[in-house]
Amino acid sequence: MNSSDSQNTQSKWIWIGGLLILIASRLITQIFLYSAGFTSLTADEFGRTVLAAQWAQEPFMLWNGPWLPFQTYLYGIALKINWELIIVPRLITIFIGILSIIIMYLFTILLFDNETIGFISAFLLAVNPAHIWLSSTPLTEIVHTLLIISSMLLFLYYIKNSKIQYLYLSSIVLAFANGFRYEAWMISLVYSLTLLGFGWIKLRDEHLETKFVHLLIAACLPWVFPIAWLAGNYFVTGDSLSGAKTVKLFRISRTGDIKSYPSYFYTLIGIDPFAVLLLIPAAIYAAFQKDRYQGIRWYLLMVFVPLLIFFLVHGGQLEPPGNYIRYLAPFVFLTYPLIAYGIYKITTLFVSQRNFQIIGIILMLLIISGRQVYSAFQFNNDPSAIGLEVGKTLRKLREDDGQSQPAPALIETLMWEYLAFHVGANDVTSIYYDRELNFYNPDQASWFEESESLRNCISYHHAKYIVAKSPELIQSISESMEFEPVTEVNDYSIFTIPSDFYANNAIQSSTCP
To answer: On the chain, which terminus has fewer CB atoms closer than 10 Å, C or N?
Structure first.
C-alpha cells in the first residue's frame, strides 16, 4: 500500500469515526428530548399504532382506505412479537431514523465522490429538528425517507457501474416506499419517466433492445402496489381515489376549504433556514457539474419535480402545524446532499488550505447544529398527547389489580385523545367508548349523561373503571352513581367502580348503545 492509499484509508476511518460519534450524539439528543416531554406531533401517531395493534390481533390484507397499509404490517408484526404499544413502535422508528443517517452518508459520498460532503450531509440530517421529531414518533415519514434514499443510492450504483441487479433493487425498494406514503408515488413518477427517457435514448442511439427491456421492467415495478391499491379501493367503494378523497374531505371539515401557500415557505424556513438559503444556488452550480458528477442531474430531478407535484396536488390546503412539518420535511431531507455540497464549496472557495477548510466546515456545522437542536426542543405536542398519561395511569391501576386480563374501562371519547388512551393503557380490546365515533361530528352527546344508560353500559361491559373529563359528565357520574374519582390526570378523573355495584345491580339484559 502506497502513502496515498494509506492516507485515503486513514481519512475514511476518521470520517466513519465521526459518523459514529454523530449517531451517538443524536441518540443522546433524542433521550433528552423525551425527558423534556416530547410525545407526538400529531394524533396520527396514536391512530397508526392502534390500527397496527388491531391488525396484530387479527391479521388481514388491507386493500383500501385512507392510509396505506405497509406501516400497519410493519408495526403489527413487531407487536405480535412483543406487545408494547408505547416502546416497540418508537424503538423501530428510532432505529430507522439512525439507519437513514447512515444511508444519507453513503449516498452523498457516491454522488459527489467526497467523504467530507458525505459527512456534512449526514450531519445536517442528524440535527434537523423535524428528522429528530419524526424519528421519535411512530409515523410513516422516516420509513419513507429511508426507503427513498436507499432506492436513490441503489440507482446511483447502477448509473456508475451498469449492473442490472442494482437497477432492480432500486425499483423494488421504491415499490415498498409506495406502500407507506403517497408522496413516494410522486417520486416514483419521476423515477419511472427518467428510466423510460433514458431507455429510449439508449435504444435510439445504441440499439440496445435488451437493456431497454430491463429499464422498462424496472420502471413498471414501483407501480405494482399503487395499481393494486387503486383497484382495491375501486372494488370496495366504486371509486379508486376514495381514500385520498376521504382524507381531503376530513381536512376540509376540520379546517375549512382554505388555501395557505405561504405556510409552505414558513414551514420550510422553520425546518431548515440554511437549506432554504443555499438550495437554489447550490442546485444551479451543481447542474453545471454534470460531467464531473455522474447522476447529478437525475438527482436534481428527483429532488425538485416531486416537490412541485406535491404543491400542485396538495393545493395549499390549510393544515395543522404538525402536518405541514410531516409533509414537507421528507422533501427537505432529500436536498441535504446538495446543501452539503454548497457548504463545502463555499468553504473551499474562500479557504485554500485543507486544515483551515475543515475548521471552517466545523464552525459552520456548529452554528447550524446550535440553531437546529435548539429548535428541536421548542416542540409543540399535539393536544391529543395528554391522553397518553391518562392511559398510562389506567394501565398502572389495572396492573395493581393483579388480574391476568385488564379490567374493562369506559372512557369519554374526546377527539383525538381516546387514541392515546389505548396506547398508554397498552390495550385495544377492553376500553369502551361513551358515544359513537363520528369524525365529522365528534361533539355528540355522551351516553353516560343518562344514569340508566351509564348503569347499562357498566353492566354490559363488566366495567371496573370510568374515565371522564367534561365537568358535566364528572358531576353526572358522581351524583347519579355516587362514585368518587380515585385519581386525576391531565384534567381527567378516573373512577373505580366499587365491587358492591354488581351485587346491587343484577346484570340482566342490559345493553349499551
So the answer is: N
